[in-house]
Design a protein that fits this description.
This protein is mainly α. It has one domain: Aldehyde Oxidoreductase, domain 4 (2-Layer Sandwich), CATH 3.30.365.10. The protein is 35% helix and 4% strand. It is built from three helices and two strands. It has a two-stranded antiparallel ribbon. A hairpin with a 2-residue loop joins β1 and β2. α1 crosses α3. It is globular. The relative contact order is 0.22. The mean pLDDT is 90. InterPro entries: AldOxase/xan_DH_MoCoBD2, AldOxase/xan_DH_Mopterin-bd_sf, N-heterocyclic_Hydroxylase. This is CO/xanthine dehydrogenase Mo-binding subunit. One of its GO terms (molecular function) is oxidoreductase activity.
Amino acid sequence: MVVNLSGAYQQVQGGIIDGLGHALYGEVTLKDGVPNQQNFDTYRLIRINEIPAVEVHFVDSAINPTGLGEPALPPAAAAFANAFFKATGKRLYNQPFMKEEAMKGVRFGVK
C-alpha cells in the first residue's frame, strides 16, 4: 500500500540517485586521523547532469507502509556495476567506481 504516491516516487528516486553518487564518487580520505573532506566543497557528489532517468514501479500489496528512501540506496551500486559489465565486459570491484581502472575516460552527463 502506497500512502503518498508522489512522495513515494521521490523517496525511491532520491535513494537510487544518492546510492549512485556514493558508488561513483563517495570517498573520505584521512590525514593524521582527520578527514580531508570537511564539507561539500571537498566531497564529490553526483551532479544533476550526471543523473540518469529513474523509472519506479510499485507492486500492490497488503503489507503495511514503511520507509522508502533507505531501501533504494544499497542496490544502486550493484545495479550500476552489473550494467557497466553488460555494456563493457569489464567488472568494477571497488568503490568509488570512478577510481577503478575500467572507468578511466568514462564521462557521464547530458551532451
